[in-house]
Specification:
Blueprint lengths: L2 E4 L1 E4 L2 E8 L15 H26 L5 H14 L2 H13 L4 H17 L5 H22 L13 E5 L4 H4 L7 E6 L7 H9 L3 E3 L13 E5 L4 E4 L3 H22 L15 E6 L5 H6 L4 E6 L1 H5 L7 H14 L4 E5 L27 H6 L1 H14 L5 E5 L5 H19 L10 E6 L2 H5 L1 H5 L4 E4 L1 H8 L18 H16 L3 E4 L10 H7 L3 E4 L4 H8 L4 H14 L3 H14 L1
Parallel strand pairs: 3-4, 4-5, 5-6, 9-10, 9-16, 10-11, 11-12, 12-13, 13-14, 14-15, 15-16
Antiparallel strand pairs: 1-8, 2-6, 3-7, 7-8
């Protein structure tokens, strides 16, 4: 009987193959009291050391094959095992309660997992619970002398189905044999999703209990476009999806021909399609996909993977390396955007009821000016080696923007004393992701060279709906007619002051949003590197004037997002 299970589409593509259940051995254990606490602690540390060594070797083996952000996953797991507070809690249970290592460790980790899972509305922290669970499995397996599944032994096509997937699992995957990934847990920012996209393996995450509904060898279709897993498909369905896979493979080949082509509409109007990156290690993919530059360099990852506040020199080297790799193309750098779902282990932030509306981004930067000035100086110095623009995140008021600009110009003048004209080529911009800033776009545009609309946050703030909360996911509505008019207001306000308007949220790479955004006059589209060629190819088929008419129809004839989406869908089919 054919069964369909819906989850979250995490990586595009279609995979068809028998199920390979990534099942772990029975890791249950007996709780008992020990007599030799030092020996038990030594047993625990031996297990930790072996796992850390294995993870470090896996990271070394994959360096050069994965981006810095992907490799940072291994650092996250190593950091958990080296966390002195966690180790102290486990050792205290062994010493004071005379618990065996398995019991002491499981008690501590289980408590941490429950705490993280209870952080509803904080997708990042909830998904870190999966990291702790993965580490727990590795430690218990070591202590019990059991082997966890080894994907390196695969020699035939499979779809990997698992409760969750950690970095030690994905690092063993060979894309020749792993045709798809489906997990019970996870979101689009989970490690399984990140790695699947890096390896270009179709993936669906958050499929609830799919591991309980399939057996090894069951035929499974992974529709990474729709986020649907089809168990025991009919021969006709298999043929249908084989055709979809063939078309997608052919389409990918056609996209490759667009690498060196301009980003231009059918009527000859030229735009820029840029890439969003987290580190300079992502730039080879940017260049391979023919991006017109980098529209968003998320500098917080430079901080998040460090065990200390990055120095001016460390940051300068990173920014210089990034801009030099772009060989003349523009690098737009977002200043530090921490807080919310992005904590720093070396700089504890206050606990807040709603961190997304709290102490984060430019608010932290202006409150800790020494840290902010260090980053600004590093960026100004790096601008001597290429085209760098700087944008400030989460600007709400004019006062914040003016304060950030004041710091920039103070540091620029200091550096210019020894290096005349340094920083004079830098363009200053700001993110529009707070509704008040969007409404005040006309006044703010007079103070900057460019806007970059961060639709991920702007949508959740406009709709008062946490984008990580499944219960209100229906309120993620980038094509809502009223929201579209707000975007148009921002674009018009920018253009009235000759301010370039870019977009760096998920909406910029949405195929249904693209003709509307062209119709509104958006200048720059920044997205994941893997979406660039698809967007450029689609743009080539669109006429700007017809897109303008489509936008006008959308806001005048449609009242809801589904109506707008259906309108665009029909328009694309007819066009």
């Amino acid at each position: 009987m054919v069964t369909r299970i819906n989850g979250i589409a995490a990586s595009d593509g279609v995979g068809i193959a028998p199920v390979y259940l990534l099942t772990k051995p029975n890791l249950s254990f007996e709780k008992y009291h020990i007599s030799d606490a030092p020996a038990e602690k030594a047993r625990l540390h031996h297990a930790f050391d072996e796992i850390v060594s294995e993870l470090a070797k896996l990271k070394d083996r994959l360096t050069g094959k994965l981006s810095d952000d992907d490799l940072a996953i291994f650092d996250t797991h190593i950091a958990i095992l080296n966390d002195p507070e966690m180790i102290k809690q486990v050792e205290n249970r062994i010493t004071n309660q005379r618990l065996n290592a398995e019991s002491a460790f499981a008690e501590v980790i289980s408590k941490m997992v429950k705490t993280l899972q209870a952080m509803t509305g904080n997708e990042y922290m909830q998904e870190r619970a999966t990291d702790f669970q993965n580490i727990q499995d590795q430690v218990l397996a070591k202590l019990e002398g059991k082997e966890l599944p080894n994907l390196r032994s695969l020699d035939h096509p499979v779809v990997v189905v698992a409760h969750s997937i950690g970095p030690s699992d994905t690092s063993q995957m060979d894309a020749r044999f792993v045709k798809g990934i489906v997990t019970d847990l996870g979101g689009r920012t989970s490690h399984a999703a990140i790695m699947a996209r890096s390896l270009q393996i179709p993936a669906i995450v958050g499929c609830s209990n799919i591991t309980e509904r399939v057996d090894n060898g069951d035929q499974l279709i992974v529709d990474g476009f729709a986020g649907t897993a089809i168990i025991a498909p009919t021969p006709d369905e298999v043929k249908k999806y084989q055709r979809v896979a063939q078309r997608f493979a052919k389409t990918r080949q056609q996209w490759q021909q667009m690498i060196d082509q301009p980003s231009v509409t059918a009527d000859g109007h030229r735009y820029k399609i840029a890439a969003n990156i987290g580190s300079s290690a992502d730039i080879p993919a940017v260049n391979e996909n023919g991006a017109d530059g980098v529209g968003l360099f998320r500098t917080e990852f430079l901080y998040m993977k460090s065990d200390h506040l990055p120095t001016e020199e460390e940051q300068f080297v990173a920014y210089r390396h990034a801009v030099e790799q772009l060989a003349g193309k523009r690098l737009v750098v977002r200043t530090l955007d921490i807080g919310g779902d992005k904590p720093l282990k070396f700089m504890p932030l206050p606990k807040e009821m709603n961190p997304f509306l709290g102490y984060r981004a430019i608010r932290i930067a202006l409150d800790r000016p020494a840290m902010f000035r260090t980053q600004i100086r590093a960026l100004i110095r790096a601008s001597a080696y290429g085209d760098i623009s700087i944008m400030f995140p989460m600007i709400t008021t004019l006062e914040e923007l003016l304060a950030a600009k004041k710091i920039y110009f103070e540091e620029q003048r200091k550096l210019a004393a020894d290096h005349p004209h340094i920083g004079e080529n830098i363009r200053l911009g700001m993110m529009i992701e707070v509704p008040l800033a969007a409404l005040n776009a006309d006044r703010l545009a007079a103070e900057v060279d460019f806007f970059s609309i961060g639709t991920n946050d702007l949508i959740q703030y406009c709709f008062a709906a946490d984008r990580g909360n499944d219960s209100v996911s229906y309120l993620y509505q980038p094509l809502n007619p009223t929201f579209l008019q707000l975007i148009k207001h921002i674009i018009d306000a920018g253009h009235a002051h000759e301010t370039t308007v870019a977009m760096c949220g998920e909406m910029a790479g949405d195929r249904y949003a693209l003709p509307l955004l062209i119709g509104m006059g958006l200048d720059v589209y920044s997205m994941s590197a893997s979406s660039i060629l698809r967007t450029r190819s689609m743009m080539k088929e669109l006429d700007r004037h017809k897109c303008e008419q489509l936008y006008q129809t959308a806001i005048s004839a449609c009242d809801t997002m589904p109506e707008v989406k259906e309108l665009v869908k029909q328009w694309l089919l007819e066009g």
